[in-house]
Design a protein that fits this description.
This protein has two domains: 138 residues, Elastase, domain 1, CATH 3.10.170; 194 residues. The chain is built from nine helices and ten strands. It has a four-stranded mixed beta sheet, covered by helices on one side. Bound molecules: zinc ion. Zinc ion binds next to helix 2 and helix 3. Zinc ion (ZN) binds next to helix 2 and helix 3.
């Protein structure tokens, strides 16, 4: 074994984008994992050996990121060690079921020549890990059959994919180059979650994925009372199902992140460490808000209001200017009502 492994940065669709990290200790506490037996490392990305280390390195990095938050989970919900199944069965799917993370391989119907491993994508690894982190700190939210809490779970997964990507300096540098000269709140390799998997799903059913990835955090979806929405809809409309509806909250979160980054750097070009820092700050505000947002039908509004409060401070890089960004975006998205002054 070499001393380091080189694995995907964010998604296999981002061809040529790799990151190198020390051999991960998956059994490290807190937030340990139980993987199938370790495999030798291979840099051949079509192999099970590569996928093993890709998943081990990504999940370790993601768990360490959430464990470093201002409100860290002490352990997973009900266990110190989370089971991980890297290739559980044939399906276009990945899943957190309350006890374990499961990844699959599958082909879109009619396209046996295309085989997608969900566990090959750091976006999907970090998404499922996000479910597990949220379940650790808020076990009352998981799988409740209530649209806004189920949708928030999906959003938290996509937010986990976004924020974990912001912790890789090489990725930050690449996405800042990609977006140079335009608003960071735009379509980018950061905003596009799970491009490879989304392309496979779209071949089966265009309603199941956005046009350029699974779910794009750069969107302009607005909150609407789910009671007035259909359960399914074309991908460019919001439907009253958790994956579709999640894009309203994720879209607001990404818009705020871009606004906070712009505020931080002023008229300077953002550097990798600026984006990395904003990723940590957004994580902490979100985790603190989850201390205060009660379970209920209007959960989006509850979390958003708590994030607006947390963003005011005290704490470094918080205060009225930051709070105004949170407030304005959540109001514009109709997630919270305008403040009565
Ligand atoms: Zn999910």
């Amino acid at each position: 074994m070499p001393g380091t492994v080189t694995v995907w940065e964010k998604d296999p669709a981002l061809v040529g984008r790799f990151t190198t990290a020390p051999i991960p200790d998956v059994a490290k506490l807190p937030l340990a994992f139980n993987f199938p037996a370790a495999r030798p490392y291979s840099s051949d990305k079509s192999t099970e050996d590569f996928r093993y280390w890709n998943a081990a390195s990504t999940l370790r990095r993601a768990a360490d990121f959430w464990a470093a938050s201002s409100r860290p989970p002490a352990e997973w919900n009900g266990t110190a060690v989370l089971d991980v199944y890297l290739d559980r069965d044939v399906a276009l799917q990945s899943k957190y079921d309350g006890q374990s993370l499961s990844f699959y391989h599958g082909s879109p119907v009619g396209h046996p020549e295309i085989v997608v491993y969900s566990g090959a994508s750091p976006d999907l690894l970090c998404h499922e890990l996000g479910h597990a982190v949220l379940d650790a700190i808020r076990p009352d939210l998981f799988d409740r059959g209530l649209l806004e809490t189920d949708a928030f779970h999906e959003s938290f997964g996509d937010i986990s994919a976004l924020l974990c990507a912001t912790q890789l300096p090489t990725f930050c540098t690449a996405v800042l180059q990609e977006t140079a000269g335009r608003n960071f709140w735009s379509n980018s390799s950061l905003s596009r979650v799970a491009e490879q998997f989304g392309a496979a799903l779209r071949m089966e059913d265009p309603e199941q994925a956005d046009t350029d990835c699974l779910r794009n955090a750069w969107n302009d979806h607005f909150y609407a009372d789910p009671a007035g929405l259909n359960n399914t809809a074309p991908a460019d409309e919001v439907a009253a199902n958790p994956h579709s509806f999640s894009r309203v909250f994720t879209g607001a979160f990404f818009e705020i992140l871009a606004g906070v980054l712009a505020l931080k750097v002023g008229n300077q070009a953002a550097k990798a460490q600026d984006l990395q820092q904003v990723g940590c700050d957004m994580r902490d505000i979100l985790m603190e808000a989850l201390d205060d947002a009660p379970f209920g039908q209007n959960f989006y509004a509850a979390v958003a209001a708590a994030m607006v409060t947390a963003s005011a401070g005290p704490g470094p890089r918080r205060g009225p200017a930051v709070q105004a960004i949170f407030q304005n975006v959540f109001v514009r998205r109709k997630i919270i009502a305008p403040a009565i002054v």
